[in-house]
Structure formats: C-alpha cells, structure tokens
Target: Deoxyribodipyrimidine photo-lyase
Amino acid sequence: MWFRQDLRLTDNLAMHQACADACADSDALSDVENSKCNQGSASHDSTQKFTNNGLVRAIFFVTPRQWLLHDVAPIQIDFIQKNVLCLGQQLARLGVELDVITVASFDDVDNALINYIQQHDIDQVYASTEPEWNEVQRDKRLINAGVALTLFEQHCAIKPGIVLNQNGEMYKVFTPFSKRWKLLAQSLAFTPQALLLTDLPRRNQHASLHTHFSQANCQFNLSDDYPELPSSEQWPAGEQAASVTLHAFLNHNIAQYSQQRDFPALTGTSGLSAYLALGVISPTQCIAATLSYFPDVLHNDASPATSWINEIIWREFYRHLLVAFPRLSRGQNFNVQADNVVWRNDRDEFLAWCEGRTGYPIVDAAMRQLNKTGWMHNRLRMVVASFLTKHLLIDWRWGEKYFRQHLIDGDLAANNGGWQWSAGTGCDAQPYFRVFNPSLQSQRFDAKAGFILSYIPEISDWPLKSIHQPSAMLNQGMFALTSNSPHCATTSLADNHQGVLSDHYPAPIVDHQYARLRAIDRLSVLKRSR
Ligand code: FAD
Model:
C-alpha cells in the first residue's frame, strides 16, 4: 500500500483492498477458510490470488525537492510528518510495517519504488489517485514501466468525469454542477451505511502481533538548507483527531454555519481543511457523518447543513475541473482571454501585501493570520485575493504561490479555484468589474474589529470607523506621510508606502476608488468572453 494524499486507514479503499487481497492470499496459502479473516468488510474477488505470502507492507515517499517545486508550505510538511507518524502507529497495530523513504523528487520515486518492489517481492501496489498533473504523469510512468499499480479514485465523494451536463461535458458553472451532484448522490444511494467502509482493514495474518513504529521510523531526511518547519501543533494529527473535529462541528456549529461562516472573529467553520487536504479524513466520511445528523440534506435545500455540504461540493467542483482541464495544474488561466491582461506586478507592493503592510487593516490582519498560523479564514482569503489582483493588479499566480507556500491546507484545486475566482480569470468567477471594497468587507464581517485587533494591536486606539476605513485617518492628517513623490495625490496613494501612523502602521497603499476604476479599466479585456 503506497500512501500519498490519503493518510488514513478508515474509508481507504486502496488499503482495504490491499488487505483483503493479501488476506485471501494468506488463506489460500495456509488452507484456512476465508471466514477466519472476518475483521473487515471489504469485498473481494476470491479468484484473484497473489503470491506475497499474505503480507501487506506500506510505504510513504518523502519528496523534499518536489515539495519545493510544488511550493508545499513547511507547516504542511510538518503536518504531513505528524500524520505519517500516527498512520505508522495505527498500521503497526494491524501488523503492517510502514517504510518512510526519502528521495528527492517524483522522478526518483520511480527507481525507489521499483527497487522496493524487488527487495520485498511485492506482487501488487495499491494507491489512491491524485488529480494533479505531475502526480498523474508519475503514475502513468510507473505503469508504463511495468509496475502493477492498482489505483482507487477516492479524493472526491463522486468521481470526476461523472457529473456532466446534457452534452456530456464538465459543468463550468457551480450551481448546475451542485444540483446534478446532489441528484447523482441520491441515485447512488448516499446513506451513511452505504457510503463508508467503516471497519478498519484486516490485519496482516502472518505478522508479529505488534510491529513497532516510532518517531525514529518516521524521519523526513530534509537537507540542512531546507526551510525550517514551523510546528503544526494547533492541528492535532491523525484520523482520530480529524473525526473528533468533524463530530464536534456537526454537534455544535453546523446549524449556525450559514450565519457565522463569514465572520473571522468567530469559530464558525469546521476547521477540517488541513485534514481534507492530506486525506486524513475523506470527503465521503464528511458527507456520511453529515447525513447521519441531517438525513435529508441532499434533497432539502432548507436543511441546516445545506450551506456546509455546498462547500464540500465546491471542493468537488474544483477537483472535477482540475481533472477535466489539466492546464489548471500548470498555472494557466481558465479563461484564455485573461492571457491578455497586463498585470502591474509591482514587487514592493507585493511584498507589502505578503507582510500585511498595505495600510488596509482587514487585509493586513488576514495576511498576518496566514503568516502566523498557516491558515486564513475563507472570507479573508477572498478579500486579500481580490485586493492583490484588483487593487494592486498583481498576477493571481503570485498570490496563489504565496498561499501555497504558507497554508497548512494548501490544495492545488481549491487554491487555484479560489484565486482564479477572485481574479475573475476562472470558471464561474467573480466578474472583473466587481471589486471588493475592503472597508465595507471590514464593516460587514468584523464590525467590532475583534479579529483585526487580534493581529494589529498597534491600532487599538483608533476610532472603529478608521479601522474599517483607514483613509479617514489620512484625511485627518493622522499619518506621517514621508513620501515626497509628486504622485502622492488624492487619486493614488501608491507612493505613500512610507507613510506611517505613529511609526507603527502604514498609510493605505492605494486609494480604493482610484484602484477600483483602474482595475475595471485594466481587466475589461475579460469582458468580451463573458
Ligand atoms: P469549512 O467552511 O468548514 O468548509 C468545509 C470544507 O469544504 C473545507 O475544509 C474545504 O475542504 C471545503 N471548502 C470550503 N470552502 C471551499 C471553497 N471555496 N473552495 C473549495 N473547497 C472549499 N481551501 C483549501 O482547502 N486549500 C486551499 O489551498 C485553499 N485556497 C483558497 C484560496 C482562495 C483565494 C480562496 C478564496 C479559497 C481557498 N480555499 C482553500 C477554500 C476555503 O477558504 C478553505 O477551504 C476554508 O477556509 C477552510 O476552512 P474550513 O475547513 O473551516 O472550511
């Protein structure tokens, strides 16, 4: 069993099948009836026999160079490591040994896997599919090289390529996609019982009772010059922790989700994204658990759980798009018309955005949340993405990369989808002329500035109105504007970087009205395609 973005045992089809096949093989070898292997529920074609002595081994590849190429955030790598440790310990209890092997990149996985197969006399490799381009190419290469790799598609609750419009094509708009998705889910008899392989996989029959797995077995051999890994301890690792998080949310928060989900000062969302991104919990488990609390959620849009299930379906939508349009994995605009946008790409402004120094408290607090915790609230992801691409006219790919490099829940499909939605270059995107007003977003979603002040305490003595609308401070001459640029006029504050209030907080990097009109003008090349 080759674990990748499916770091769990429960509801892991590939692992279940590996164990079921090995168990059947083991039974054939020892001439014991199949009924002895009664700890699991996975179905098995007993005509298929393998010769690996009934043992399952597990493997996980650490690929530091690939992670750098893919901009995987150091905090996410730390979270991967902690989850691999939990997985190894669970596997040990099943008598399955997990080998954690460090190679540089996907290219090196080929040889390492082939050597491993020879060394351990492996008949069959089981794994879950990953939808991203490089991952798909790696698997194709291995299969072409003769590796018996059996793939199970489980990163979505409904497989990509099935939710299609009347022309048999992938939807390009979310709402009809989600309607079709729900219809299919009903016809596929989505019930908690039918959805899940709830039992743990069968244990290795010939393994010693407890195969030990410790921190020492879980070393990620990263080079000395590798970025330091910030601790992910705020997210307890392991599928048990993910399940506890899910059930706590379903018990206490889901009914208020639609009212609370947009307010970053509240804990109104599930906090499951880091687990979903690594497959520590599956979308199917999330849906099955929701159905057990709200059985009608798939056909009753008034269910208290509807909004939340819709977010899970957004996740599915972006993944189905990634599979249908592989160019999305390669950093291309979904809307080819967007290739004509001339981005300003000012490096200093980008840096100010990254570091939370734009002079817009809502934007800066959000970026500081990301830099400090590795996570950012969804409402704020939309606000800062809109600000970068529309107020500053910086290519969405710069923001996408920065997010990826810092997010504990970094996920190519959701991140790309979110960025292209915000920039107006994506599928079913925010129209180019709709430019979030940071002041209004701030007033609406953090009215008492509780969230903002938790990250920007230096402005706690500002009047509330100015926290939401920092230009009010500017009008009162409260900023010490040090820039002597002739362009420092009411139309653009872009040269006012060095303007500071009490040496602490910068003046707004650009005037909202000016930036809005500039964005609409510059992005109007997107108009023709809509
Ligand atoms: P909840 O609100 O509890 O939602 C439950 C789950 O649904 C999430 O865990 C997530 O898996 C999924 N989900 C929720 N909203 C979305 C969405 N808009 N698109 C796709 N899936 C969604 N999500 C990531 O998981 N990884 C990313 O790299 C990522 N980058 C984003 C970038 C931008 C610019 C934007 C606007 C959104 C991005 N999102 C990303 C989506 C969303 O912000 C996060 O999934 C959410 O904030 C995670 O918090 P939660 O688990 O508490 O979410």
Remarks:
- The first helix runs from residue 13 to 30.
- Confidence is low (pLDDT under 50) at residues 31-51, 480-498.
- Strands lie at 2-3, 57-62, 97-102, 125-128, 149-152, 500-501, 505-506.
